[in-house]
């Protein structure tokens, strides 16, 4: 009998009048994902991006519903720089979130700073971090994160998956490296699409009118193939777009009211 392949679910676009409203609802969404996961299996696995995303997580600070001791945090991608470098996604997340909340340090999984000079060893090391978390607890071919949070660049890239790059077609590795990023710094490690698309929930966060043309292309013309449009979680995973009205002003794609 031929295998049945379920098509990905349609993205859910949720637009808010301003970034503050987005921040509050995003925090509620994350807390709901956490509760569902902790109730089901006693832990919450989440992967974060850098860029403007860490600032958008401020709604989690002083939020009594967050069970920080149940979180296991990974990075969707990371710049190959020291952890305290201004370009480090880990530094950004620490400054804007982790330094302000009681999350155990051992629950945060940055890259190994001793391997910065060897991209292959560095990406292999981070893949082993994922294997330690997922391989003993889940039986899937790829890790199944409870939630992956993504940003979107003006060129439509997400994580460190850039237009026209060979990694767009990677189907086996969980973590891969980039040594020729068109956006500095050039050296990075990144989750691949199979990891991103096996998550239970994936949520893009985008705000500002400078995102309007790219967001329209991704949602209204997904076959154009921009990297962010290739994020299509496999069933029963679900894709969400949390945006403000400025980012969504040119989008024809239907919007969905926010509800938990």
From TrEMBL:
It catalyses: 6-phospho-D-glucono-1,5-lactone + H2O = 6-phospho-D-gluconate + H(+). Residues 17-241 form the Glucosamine/galactosamine-6-phosphate isomerase domain. Keywords: Hydrolase. One of its GO terms (molecular function) is 6-phosphogluconolactonase activity. InterPro entries: 6-phosphogluconolactonase_DevB (IPR005900), 6PGL (IPR039104), Glc/Gal-6P_isomerase (IPR006148), NagB/RpiA_transferase-like (IPR037171). Belongs to the glucosamine/galactosamine-6-phosphate isomerase family. 6-phosphogluconolactonase subfamily. It comes from Crucibulum laeve. Pathway: Carbohydrate degradation; pentose phosphate pathway; D-ribulose 5-phosphate from D-glucose 6-phosphate (oxidative stage): step 2/3. Its EC number is 3.1.1.31. This is 6-phosphogluconolactonase. Hydrolysis of 6-phosphogluconolactone to 6-phosphogluconate. GO terms for biological process: carbohydrate metabolic process; pentose-phosphate shunt.
């Amino acid at each position: 009998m031929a295998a049945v392949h379920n098509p990905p679910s349609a993205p859910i676009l949720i637009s808010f009048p301003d970034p503050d409203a987005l921040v509050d609802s995003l925090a509620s969404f994350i807390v709901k994902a956490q509760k569902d996961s902790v109730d089901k299996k006693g832990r919450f696995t989440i992967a974060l991006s850098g860029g403007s995303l860490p600032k958008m997580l401020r709604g989690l600070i002083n939020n009594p519903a967050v069970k920080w001791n149940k979180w296991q945090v990974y990075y969707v991608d990371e710049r190959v720089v020291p952890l305290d470098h201004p370009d480090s996604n880990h530094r950004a997340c620490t400054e804007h979130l982790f330094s302000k909340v009681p999350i155990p340090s051992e629950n945060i999984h940055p890259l190994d700073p001793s391997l910065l000079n060897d991209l292959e060893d560095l990406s292999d090391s981070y893949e082993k971090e994922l294997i330690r978390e997922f391989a003993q607890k889940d039986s899937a071919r790829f890790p199944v994160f409870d939630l992956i949070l993504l940003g979107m660049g003006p060129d439509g890239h997400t994580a460190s998956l850039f237009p026209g790059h060979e990694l767009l077609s990677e189907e086996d590795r969980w973590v891969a490296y980039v040594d020729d990023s068109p956006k500095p710094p050039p050296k990075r490690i990144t989750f691949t699409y199979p990891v991103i698309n096996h998550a239970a929930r994936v949520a893009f966060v985008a705000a500002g009118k400078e995102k309007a043309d790219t967001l329209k292309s991704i949602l209204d013309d997904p076959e154009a193939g921009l990297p962010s449009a290739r994020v299509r979680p496999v069933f029963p995973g679900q894709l969400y777009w949390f945006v403000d009205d400025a980012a969504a002003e040119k989008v024809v794609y239907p919007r969905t009211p926010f509800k938990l």
